[in-house]
Amino acid sequence: MRNLLLAFALLATLGCAGPAGKPVQTSVTGDALYRNLGGTEGITRVVDAFLPRVNGDARINGLFLKVDHDDLRHLIIEQLCTATGGPCTYTGRSMQEAHSGLNLTNADFNAFVEDLVAAMDQVKVRKTSQRELLALLAPMRMQIVGQ
Ligand code: HEM
Fold first, then answer.
1. pLDDT digits (tens, 9 = 90+) for 38-68
2. Phi, psi of 124 (to 5 degrees)
3. Are 131 and 5 in contact (CB under 8 A)?
4. Please, what are the domains in the chain?
5. Tens digit of pLDDT for each residue in 102-147?
6. For residue 18, what pLDDT is reported?
7. Pure H helices in 56-105
8. Separation of alpha carbons 48 and 70, rounded Å
9. Are 73 and 47 in contact (CB under 8 A)?
10. Which residue's CA is the closest to the ligand 1 atom numbered 18?
11. What is the pLDDT of residue 14?
12. Distance CA 74, CA 40 (A)
């Protein structure tokens, strides 16, 4: 877990974001990561393991009290599907817009990522796929933290 988070922190400083913080779709990987995660079904399993962890995480769950959880679930599935090269279109707001006014810190971001890694471990996503997914999310940190 520690190595994965370290790699993630490194990628966050090296990465670059797409326009307006939208997920970056890489032509290098095509839809390989989407397929390796088990497609929309596999991504849904990850998100359904992830959101209860966030809701049970006292470090950050206060931020989600007024959030419509079904909407958030749907948008995160859509976003991860799009970012990993799947046949979806993300219909939500940009990361900057969605997190504006929340004043999120790096600690909030790290807690969120820890919950995601734990969820991926829980549903047995391979570490190589975990690293690839975290590498896609890392550049979003700058659109999310401090907005
Ligand atoms: C790479 C990391 C993250 C991703 C991919 C992500 C993704 C998303 C998405 C797709 C939405 C819905 C956008 C919309 O409503 O149109 C959202 C909203 C939200 N996110 Fe994040 N998020 C990330 C990090 C975080 C962190 C670190 C926190 C707090 C600890 C957080 C808290 C929230 C909250 C509270 C909302 C609802 C905002 C509202 O409805 O006003 N997010 N996020």
1. 999 999 999 999 999 999 999 999 999 999 9
2. 60, 45
3. no
4. 2-142 (1.10.490.10)
5. 999 999 999 999 999 999 999 999 999 999 999 999 999 999 999 9
6. 44
7. 69-83, 95-98
8. 11
9. yes
10. 98
11. 38
12. 11
Burial letters for 110-136: b for 16+ Cβ neighbours within 10 Å, e otherwise? Answer: bbbbbbbbebbeebebeeebbebbbbb
* CB-defined site of ligand 1, < 6 Å: 60, 63-64, 67, 72, 75-76, 79, 92-93, 98-99, 102, 104, 108-109, 112, 137, 140, 144
CA atoms of 134 and 147, how far apart (whole Å): 21
Mean pLDDT of 56-83: 97
Better-predicted residue by pLDDT, 60 or 19: 60
Q: Which two tokens stand for residue 44?
A: 């849904």
